Amino acid sequence: MSDLSQKPLLNKLIEKNSRLQLLVLSNGHGEDIIAARIIQELQQLSTPPDIFALPIVGEGHAYQKLNVPCIGEVKTMPSGGFIYMDGKQLMRDVQGGLVQLTWKQIQAVRSWVSSQTKLGNQNVILAVGDIVPLLFAALSGANYAFVGTAKSEYYVRDELGLLPGRSKSAWWENFSGSIYHPWERWLMSRRRCRAVFPRDALTTEILRKWPIPAFDAGNPMMDGLEPKITDPVFDGVEVEEAEISRPMMVTLLPGSRANEAYENWQIIMMGVSALIDGFREREIVFLGAIAPSLDPNILSQTLQTMGWQQQDQCTVKLADPQAIFFKLKSATLILSQQSYNEFLHWGDIAIAMAGTATEQYIGLGKPAIAIPGKGPQYNPAFAEAQSRLLGSSLRLIDQPSQVFPTVQTLFKDPDLLQDIAENGVKRMGRPGAAKRIAECLQSMRI
């Protein structure tokens, strides 16, 4: 990570014989997972810090799995954390006690810092997410670092400059010369903010125009995606033969929020039907990457009402004994809650109505087709913003019937597919970011 080693870091170091106390703040399920990846890498260091956490949104299940103790009060709000461009969701959270919870959490952070200081410990805060944990960190009185997961300059520009044809309302996103507003940059430029890790190189480059200690370590969202089975294995088919006669494989990503994902699934299945009707003579395998939070029985009912027949076995071998298989005409559909990484890697293209999952899929250099839903997360505003973030890799369509012609267009243009492959990796970064961030934090001895 030459970008990090070339920068002057800190003048004030902790004593070598003291043990660092680290408090991790995050504000959302996806942010919790990213923070957990960094924590896992920190725990592998030769002198790991003592780690505590405060999930500002939700109950922090990702931390519980790592046995990281949580400080302060945690609570799941009515919106589930999805208040993006949705005032109604925000009002529901306010009515559900958001203001009171926020105040209690700020007090808990300050109390933690105070208690560690009294014990003579070096205490540091790692904020993961957006301005909310960043603000909490700034109000704590401790040194802090920030992993910015929510914002990217790709929302408003690419390497050539500002994106053309943006709406007038998009002016607000970049009115001060960066996707990060002046008050956010002020928090990142404080003396106690020792490191900022943006999600991509372009955002890092822009932030360095101000006195912000921004480092290009990559995006932890692309970590931990290695599949157990590298390539799909077809039962009774030789490897060489499978490579030649391999069916088209389409990954289906309905999202993880229960009620919304079930509605998304119905929309996705209409797109699946259009694809089957369009490629009548071609074998297609649909890979349903289903979050553990979803009920497979509800998704299966939707399939059965659309004519899919459940099967006892499938020609594609999986490591998931609970996978459910379906057949319709020459198409096969697999539902699995344990094959997420495999389904991301195996898919030739995805039909996606998800946040993080869509970005991870595209980060592998693959194209995805998105259909805006009703939300609260994957609504038209979110999908439009995501299409700017991901550029040519994400094809935003209005109706499920447009899936087939969109797939046709993509696979008729090998040069476009090559551009998409390069674009996805550029925008989402290479794997290993969590380890690089952990090593940077250690070398800085905040």
Put simply, the count of helices is 17
How many domains? The number is: 2
For this structure, the CATH topology of the largest domain is: Rossmann fold
Our Rg estimate from Cα atoms comes to: 23 Å
CATH class of the largest domain: Alpha Beta
**CA distance, first residue to last residue:** 18 Å
Strand order of the largest sheet: 11-13-14-10-9-15-16-17
- Share of residues in strands: 15-25%
Question: Residue-averaged pLDDT, rounded?
Answer: 88
Largest sheet: 8 strands, mixed
> What's the overall geometry?
globular
| Level-2 CATH architecture of the largest domain | 3-Layer(aba) Sandwich
**What is the strand tally?**
17
User: Would you identify the CATH H-level superfamily of the largest domain?
Assistant: Glycogen Phosphorylase B
Q: Strand pairing plus helix content: what structural class?
A: alpha/beta
Low-confidence stretches: 4-17
Please estimate the helix content.
Answer: 25-40%
What do these coordinates show?
It is a single chain. This protein is an alpha/beta fold and 446 residues long. It has two domains: 2-224 and 431-444, Glycogen Phosphorylase B (Rossmann fold, 3-Layer(aba) Sandwich); 233-428, Rossmann fold. The protein is built from 17 helices and 17 strands. The chain has an eight-stranded mixed sheet, with helices on both faces. The longest helix has 21 residues, at 98-118. The radius of gyration is 23 Å and the shape is globular.
